[in-house]
Amino acid sequence: MSLLRHLFSPRSVAIIGASSDPRKIGGRPIRFMKAYGYAGRILPINANAAEIQGLPAYARVEDVVGEVDQALIVVPAAAAEDALRGCVAKGVKVVQVLSSGFGEAGDEGRILQDRLVRIAREAGMRMTGPNALGVVSPGERYFGTFSTALEGMCPEPGGVAMVTQSGAFGSCAYVMAMRRGLGLSRVIATGNEADVDVSELIGLLADDAQTRVICAAVEACKDGERLRAALRKAAARNKPVIVMKVGTTEVGAAAAATHTGSLAGNDAVYDAVFRECGAYRARSIEEMIDVAYACSLGGMPGNDRVGIVTVSGGIGILMADAASEAGLALPAPSASALHAMREVLPFVTGANPLDVTAQIAVNRAAITAIGQTMVDDADYGALLIYLANNALAPPVFETTKQAVLALRHARPDVLLVTVMPAEDGVRMALEEAGVLVFEDPSRAVRSVAAAAELRRLQQDASEAVPAARPGAALPAGEFDEAGAKALLAQAGVPVLDERVVHTAEDAAAHAERLGGAVVLKIVSPEILHKTEVGGVALGLQGGQAVRQGFETILQRVRTAAPQARIDGVLVAPMAGPGVETIVGVHVDPVFGAVMMFGLGGIFVELFRDVAFASAPLSPARARRLIRATRGSALLDGWRGAAPVDVQALVDVLCRLSAFAATHAHELASIEINPLLVRESGCVALDAVITMRNPSERAPV
Amino acid sequence: MSLLRHLFSPRSVAIIGASSDPRKIGGRPIRFMKAYGYAGRILPINANAAEIQGLPAYARVEDVVGEVDQALIVVPAAAAEDALRGCVAKGVKVVQVLSSGFGEAGDEGRILQDRLVRIAREAGMRMTGPNALGVVSPGERYFGTFSTALEGMCPEPGGVAMVTQSGAFGSCAYVMAMRRGLGLSRVIATGNEADVDVSELIGLLADDAQTRVICAAVEACKDGERLRAALRKAAARNKPVIVMKVGTTEVGAAAAATHTGSLAGNDAVYDAVFRECGAYRARSIEEMIDVAYACSLGGMPGNDRVGIVTVSGGIGILMADAASEAGLALPAPSASALHAMREVLPFVTGANPLDVTAQIAVNRAAITAIGQTMVDDADYGALLIYLANNALAPPVFETTKQAVLALRHARPDVLLVTVMPAEDGVRMALEEAGVLVFEDPSRAVRSVAAAAELRRLQQDASEAVPAARPGAALPAGEFDEAGAKALLAQAGVPVLDERVVHTAEDAAAHAERLGGAVVLKIVSPEILHKTEVGGVALGLQGGQAVRQGFETILQRVRTAAPQARIDGVLVAPMAGPGVETIVGVHVDPVFGAVMMFGLGGIFVELFRDVAFASAPLSPARARRLIRATRGSALLDGWRGAAPVDVQALVDVLCRLSAFAATHAHELASIEINPLLVRESGCVALDAVITMRNPSERAPV
Questions:
Q1: Which chain B residues are within 8 Å of A311, Cβ to Cβ?
Q2: Domain A1-127: CATH superfamily, name plus number
């Protein structure tokens, strides 16, 4: 709590490197605070001036009498350490190092930066930056920043916090938010994040009374668990988090050996983490601001059902198309509700969209009754009203405005959205009452859909998830197929009763014991794709066929891969019918063990129809992971086939995810391909497990 | 040409039903024209006034001395016929019937409307509406409309025409365009389209010197060929057409019996027609306006390659992500170009995006050299420059603005886009020089991508397509599988050497003649899905197996479908390996024969991975149709399989499309499922052909 207060609403701030020139970096924060009415103490620190911009200046921060909540360090990098030591000596609570020339500038800067963190940590003092852009708290008129984005545009106070690492990205988003008329609670750009990072701030702002919605841009998260915890905390407080992830990275070559590795790009993992921790991922700054606008002014709708009232059939259909594309439901009001509405306005047509036509002009006040009847009847979480162009003529629009405000007053629990171009005064009056105003119909619908999705994501995020449990260390070295399956069996994943043999006779003997047809597969840690070297024979029945198959396989593999070490041949029963799926584990350097699920073959390879989720999984999350793929429809019985055992698949996902979480510091990846899901139960038919190099086996 | 002139720039206009009250429908057009400076003759027609809004009024249009180019009819529906006859008597060139109460109001209105069209057509007079909203030509200050959207906001003249059917939709788009600062050439809402329709107007505006870009909203096209011709004409003139389709309709139950029918929703067909005729389909009004803005000010980029220059790494990456998602290429400049740029600005990093960092402030004029080096080196069709927030402070931005203008001057062939919030004066100065200004980085990129796509679509649309040829009538009645295949063979589609037999002996005899394994299939016009009734047996080898298979099939079918008429059993050779595809024909009531292509099975059923194109196809279009599906990757040899004969598939698509176009007035649909594409050649394994009812066999 004290970091929150000292960072965003300090009662006193020292500017170390203060300048008399209000255009310079050391002069701007002072100018902004004076011009925009900061009520705390502004303490310029400058050894060569007695007065700075009309304020008494101090040679050193230690010379200040009284407490210093926050210091801004704007001196050159080389002088920052001294300045920081001064802050320690003075007992400053939070320091913002706005100077650049540190970690972002190369090795020397990195050493300087590490020294700053050590000094601050030893003193129990918190620090943002270095290379930070600073903080703005419009409500407190606090401007601890030199950002030129504030030039001539004092931000409106409001409920949206904006947290970014990059100052440039933050400034871009900040200015777009201001121009959109969005009220801001806190704006901060954390720079190099040597101490305070975006994750910690999200967690802090979840407790900030002034902040209702958090917008965050994540660039390079270093601590996945901290980000997860912060997002979950915000979700638990019902504070929407709208997040952007900038900068996708290439996957390492090592990981690319399996589907799981090549598909689990950094981006897909972030995507999964955001969703499961209840945050909405925006794909553009405009979208982030739209969704923040909707959530901060109107709130998240209570359900996915939307009603549409329109004065134009064409725009109504446009909105309905956009709504169903965005996954919103458009249930019609009941016949009796429609009857009641026709009593008020005989000319209404349609149902949802309900077209009140331009004839609404004969009784504009009826919007209240129409809207209320609709939401009372059909329990819409949001109601969108398209009102053409009247809001550009405020006198003409006055009755409509009052009618909309009355509707908002009657049903404040429903997200109420007007769609129209509006004169600024009209717009602001509606917004003040919590009514949204969008000009573009499709954008209005998409923003409502995002707000509804946020509510769903927050609900899902509130479900309990199992914690990773400790376990005994895995054996070192590489695993061949048999070894991988033994490990899976240990993790609770069903495998076939199969055996590695070294002679044709042993192969025939095991086949006889199994009964029925068998499959033979080459066992070699150096051959990942067995089929391609002729290392697989299917459906062999009887001793003679098995013996012959054994010899054929060895011969083909020796020809195709003469250098490969061969550890034997696997004899297994034929698996029978079922749906082939791929289940993978990818151990991400930041987020730890992550599960992948997809249907086999072209689903994964051509359509990239896979989904990711963090390990360990609860059964509900495992189900959600499965259903996030389109191909999962095949599990339910496709074209007359019998449905397969989804519950068994859920069990396997949960068990494997627990195993993966336990061994995340040893594993690099697991891929079961295929995991055959049968009418009853499922079974791993092939698996590849890759371990980290021992040198990399740090705790995740 | 004369309709274009008389409709959009009449030298004289009569308002029949003119009102002295400038707020009334009959008064508004006169007020607008007077207020905004129309230079032609305004002729109020009103039997009860000698003067209207300060202008001499006439009792009847026939009383006017001199030519009347255009008349607006705003009298009630019942009086419209008399008014129209007056226009005929006077020799008015074009009449806009703005009154409502016609086709949109029920049967009586429809009769009135039909009478108006007859009168106009007999007189050779053209007519818009009824129930139209009128015309605006900002360049000529002509305002033949009563739209309240003009209240207090005189539109800027410019190069964008906006053509809609619905007045409400048009007003919404018009006001959004005005607020976006988009200059307009013509705005028209055609209403009920009893005579002039959106298609005709697109064709006219393709020849309009004032119009550089056409925005159109299509609701219910009645004449597909006219729309196609108009779009192709605009594409041939290199006039971008950005179109919205509002109102998707449900597919008829009859058509839903096949995949082709159920997937060929009205919407998918419109989509195909727009694309192949060179038009870009926008999904929101905002998008339509963005793309029109880009094309009208900057033009269509010459290729899909974009360069990005940025002052912020984060925004650069955001734009690069958006660009690759939108299908744009981001090639890097050469090492020597990078070297040259570092000579100018030593601190630039990256390549594309090229990050000039905030240090560009030391030499803002360098943007010209940097930009020119990039486009000269890497042949970018478009260059996007992110410039942070300086354009909000015009004096600070002046040098940058001049540098950007110099770059535009040096390379006017490259689409130059600045990305930044900008003060209005700055924005307008840039726009006047043809430099685009976007605030949101992602939206800037998407708009450039759309403009680039328009160029590609226009190029593709310019390719010659074969014309439909006449042919002999098809046999009447229903087709069983054998009949359908016989018809396909006639169309030039390869089928297997198969025969319908009625006894087990004949089955065995034909199997022997074929040699190798055969397949047996039940033949019944009443069974569409043979497998589901056990009506198929595969891989039968030898006389005994074939005889037994024959009996088994009959027995199973008689059990599963005891009522079905059975016409025999088909004996065919096994088709061998290949890729299963679905090829369909859907005869659309508006657009005629349309081809569908997709890969078999789950590709179509689960992923809806299908594409449509109008018949007949050229080989180039057939190839494009195939490649529009993701599944087409399987044709090239998936996971080590041999590639199959795509050329044979192209041939089949072309031949079937020619057949479909010839018989569009007889056919309802054709579906070949599967068409097996083999390493050499392809073959139809099963087909369903449905014919129209004879009563519906009107020419398409």
A1: 168
A2: NAD(P)-binding Rossmann-like Domain (3.40.50.720)
With an 8 Å Cβ cutoff, are A315 and B634 in contact?
A: no
User: Which residues does chain A have within 8 Å of residue B287's beta carbon, measured at their own beta carbons?
Assistant: 442
Assign a CATH topology to domain B1-128: Rossmann fold (3.40.50)
State the pLDDT at residue B221: 87
Q: E-strand spans in B603-648? A: 610-614
Grade residue A480 by pLDDT with cuts at 50, 70 and 90. confident
Q: Which of B152, B247, B441 sits opposite A285 (nearest CB)?
A: B441
Give the one of B312, B321, B633 whose C-beta lies nearest to A248's C-beta.
Answer: B321
Cβ-Cβ contacts under 8 Å for B213 (sequence gap 6 or more): B159, B160, B161, B239, B240, B241, B242, B292, B295, B296
Does the structure show a pLDDT above 80 at A313?
yes
Indicate if the pLDDT at residue B698 is higher than 70.
no
Q: Are A246 and B317 inside 8 Å of each other by CB? A: yes
Q: Is the N-terminal amide bond of B240 cis, ω within 30° of 0?
A: no
Number of H helices, E strands in chain B: 22, 30
Over 70: is that where the pLDDT of B265 sits? no
Contact residues on chain A for B285, CB-CB shorter than 8 A? 318, 440-442
Q: What percent of chain B has pLDDT over 90?
A: 75
Same fold, A155-298 and A497-573: no
User: Phi-psi bin for A492: left (phi > 0), alpha (psi -120 to 50), beta?
Assistant: left
Q: What is the CATH number of domain A306-438?
A: 3.40.50.261
Nearest chain A residue to B165 by CA: give it. A314
Nearest CB to A285 within list B313, B440, B638: B440
- Measured between CA atoms, the residue of chain B closest to residue A445 is B284
Q: How much is the ipTM here?
A: 0.90
What class, spelled out in words, does domain A155-298 have in CATH?
Answer: alpha beta
- Position B264 pLDDT exceeds 60: no
Contact B309, B386 (CB under 8 A): yes
Cβ pair A313:B172 closer than 8 A = no
Do the Cβ atoms of B389 and A442 come within 8 Å? no
A257, pLDDT greater than 60: no
Out of A168, A312, A442, closest to residue B315 by CB:
A168
- CA–CA distances in Å: residue B649 to residues B252, B495, B655: 29, 13, 10
So where are chain A's domains?
1-127, 155-298, 306-438, 497-573, 579-696
pTM: 0.91
B171 with A389: Cβ contact below 8 A: yes
* Candidates 3.30.470.20, 2.60.40.1940, 3.40.50.2300, 2.60.120.200; CATH matching A579-696: 3.30.470.20
Q: In terms of CA atoms, which chain B residue is nearest residue A386? A: B172
Residue B110's pLDDT band (cuts 50, 70, 90): very high
Give chain B positions within 8 Å (CB) of A317.
Answer: 246-248
| Residue B170 distance to chain A (closest CA, Å) | 10
Provide mean pLDDT across the span A320-338: 94
CATH for B497-573 is 3.30.1490.20
pLDDT digits (tens, 9 = 90+) for A132-158: 999 999 999 999 999 988 877 778 899
**CA atoms within 13 Å, Cβ hemisphere of B371:** 31
Average pLDDT over residues B529-552: 89
- Give the mutation candidate from A182, A218, A284 for the B interface (greatest B CB count, under 10 A): A284
Q: Return d(Cα B232, Cα A187) in angstroms, integer.
A: 51
Residues from chain B contacting residue A287 (CB–CB below 8 Å): 442
Q: Into which CATH architecture does domain B299-461 fall?
A: 3-Layer(aba) Sandwich (3.40)
Distance between CA atoms of residues A244 and A274, nearest Å: 10
Alpha-carbon distance of A212 to A301, in angstroms, equals 15
Contacts of A180 (CB under 8 A, 6+ apart): A289, A293
Nearest to A421 among B176, B317, B392 (CB): B176
